[in-house]
Design brief:
There is one protein chain. The chain is of the alpha/beta class. Helices cover 35% and strands 18% of the residues. It contains 7 helices and 7 strands. Strands 3-2-1-4-5-7-6 form a 7-stranded mixed β-sheet. Strand 1 (54-57), helix 3 (63-70) and strand 2 form a beta-alpha-beta unit.
Amino acid sequence: MKRKLSPELLDSLTPDSPEARRSRADLVRINRIMGNNTWFVRTAPPLARPGERALELGSGDGRLALRLLAAGLPTDALDQFPAPADWPASARWHAFDLRDFPAWSEYPIVVGNLILHHLTVSELAALGDRLAPHARVLLFNEPFRHLRSRLLWTLAAPIGGASPVTRHDGRVSIEAGFRGDELPRALHLDPDRWHWRITTTVLGAYRMIALRRP
């Protein structure tokens, strides 16, 4: 199953449209069912060293960053849209496209949930080149690109009441996902400098933990 990038419908909707609001609610439910945020909260804080801050890429509503903050990991957010009205003063919100973000050097820990599958191979390589000089820990959760994932989504999305936008976007997200060592390789992580571990779940998550070697 070759990787294929296609436009997602949610990206073409205005943020306050009923279709966009329903799709975002679907995504909250999907993350909860798949245990995505729980995995980050369980995995990231123990890897942090005293004084380190984490950065979440593509924060959306900030839900994951807030959970990491509550778990004791200082976490800032990066998203092209402005911060939610109730965003806490204890965390920074960087309103940038990640392609243009200028402050990578401030973050030894970088996490991202369902964000990197939006990027082309060249964009992933450019991101990895920006991360490499400063990052020590990389945690990413993405769609597992597999026929099993696509079949499961085709069957489960209608049963779970997913909107037409979410059904479409879920399918194209899986097609743009990753398998094997594709993600660390696409990020140009040097195996002599990085150790990574890839796991997948029965519900279709592809998870990468990458640690810079001492």
